[in-house]
Amino acid sequence: MSMNETPSGERIQIAFFGKRNAGKSSIVNAVTGQDLSVVSEIEGTTTDPVYKAMELLPLGAVMIVDTAGMDDTGELGQLRVEKSLQVLEKTDIALLVIDSTKGKSETDLHLISEFQKRKIPYIIIYNKSDLHEVSVASISEISVSAKTGKNIHALKELIAKQVCPSSNPKPLISDLIQKQDFLVLVIPIDESAPKGRLILPQQQVIRAALEAGAVPLCCQPSELSDVLHHIVPRMVITDSQAFGKVAQIVPQQIPLTSFSILFARYKGDLETVVKGAAALDHLKEGDHILISEGCTHHRQCNDIGTVKLPAWVQNHAGCHLEFSWTSGTEFPRILDEYALIIHCGACMLPPKAVQFRQNTAFEQGIPITNYGTAIAHCHGILKRSLSLFPEVQKLLIR
Fold first, then answer.
1. Which domain holds residue 82?
2. Which is the most buried residue in 22, 71, 90, 202, by most CB within 10 A?
3. Same domain, 21 and 149
4. Same domain assignment for residues 62 and 132
């Protein structure tokens, strides 16, 4: 990803669904003006969801997703359908493509039911109007032809009306700071840090601080004492893995939090993950913990998700625990085998996907927290790390 490119988790997610050979990929290519998807008369050409980040006027930064046919058959076909259904977890607007020469099918009606159940805005697109013109029944339906280009511009305008210009109206940090505030960002540069760059949460906090007119200062944990000797910052924001060391250095009167806690509020519900952290006090021998990350990356030695975090949790619980891991789009539908879910900061996931995962855990009665809150709790500093959020902090006062 380019340093100037909008992160995938900040883009409006527009997903195309439908049966095989309804013309989804042709519509995707017509809307984007690019050959993003392979088009063929052979059913099932698109096998896995195809993602393309792009600028789509008048919306701006979007993520276009072309999914496999929802009527695919066989064992492999069902796996493809399941992959396509996973896309719904993060979809801001769904576009259902129907072959106008065949009309709505049971598969299409089932998809519409899924959109409505998940409260996803949707548009029904009757493709192949050059072969058969359909009389549309509502303002959320349109008849087009990917072949001739008929009504493609009107479809773009209709999409723009359905989608909020901002995929996430929540502030990351702007409501916590004022112009000319000094912020100290503690960023360890160790064996687990990526070479030559900062990770996305650090980049986004720096950008948000600059946009608010504040002054972000970056340092490593070993430099923090010297920095605080020269300035008194509005707050200190640390990488979660350095929470314990940083908490010992930062004076109590200076607010301290982590990138992960800021993202818990920004992407999902901070109250939910704070309540979920309480489950760390009640883990027992053999309990199964799911550690879930929203992206896939090459794991370095001493990785936080697979090495450091399990060690901290197990030490806090004082007993042997079982751990499982998922990454990227993978997230179990059935969670009853887990005593707790610990999610990453989700910088690469759109808010809708984070909220879906939190809601799935809530509906099944499984506590869910995230890296920052879990680590702060294990180090006994969760209450302190929530001083910027007094209403949430009250949840810890018994």
1. 8-162
2. 22
3. yes
4. yes
Q: What gap in Å lies between CA 36 and CA 54, rounded to an integer?
A: 11
d(CA 291, CA 310): 9
Task: Give percent of the chain above pLDDT 70.
Answer: 90
Same domain, 353 and 278: yes
Backbone φ and ψ of 249, nearest 5°: -95, -40
Q: Is residue 59 within 8 Å of 6, Cβ to Cβ?
A: no
CA dist 84 and 280 (Å) reads 34
Measured CA to CA, the distance from residue 387 to residue 253 in angstroms comes to: 10
349 and 247 inside one domain: no
Distances (CA, A) of 388 to 176, 214, 233: 7, 16, 14
CA-CA distance, 165 to 156, in Å (whole number)? 14
CA separation (Å) from 142 to 12, 32, 120, 210?
Answer: 21, 17, 18, 43
pLDDT at residue 164 is higher than 60: no
In a domain? residue 122: yes
Task: Count CB-CB contacts under 10 A for residue 193.
Answer: 16
Let me know if residue 49 belongs to a domain: yes
* Same-domain pairing of 202 and 323: no
Domain count, the chain: 3
Amino acid at 77: G
Alpha helices in 186-282 (DSSP H): 200-211, 224-230, 243-249, 259-267, 270-277
What mean pLDDT is predicted for residues 184-205? 84
Q: Is the torsion defined by CA of 25, 26, 32, 36 positive or negative?
A: positive
Asked whether residue 167 is assigned to any structural domain, the reply reads no
Residues 125-133: what's their mean pLDDT? 93
Nearest in space to 258 (alpha carbons), one of 221, 213, 232: 221
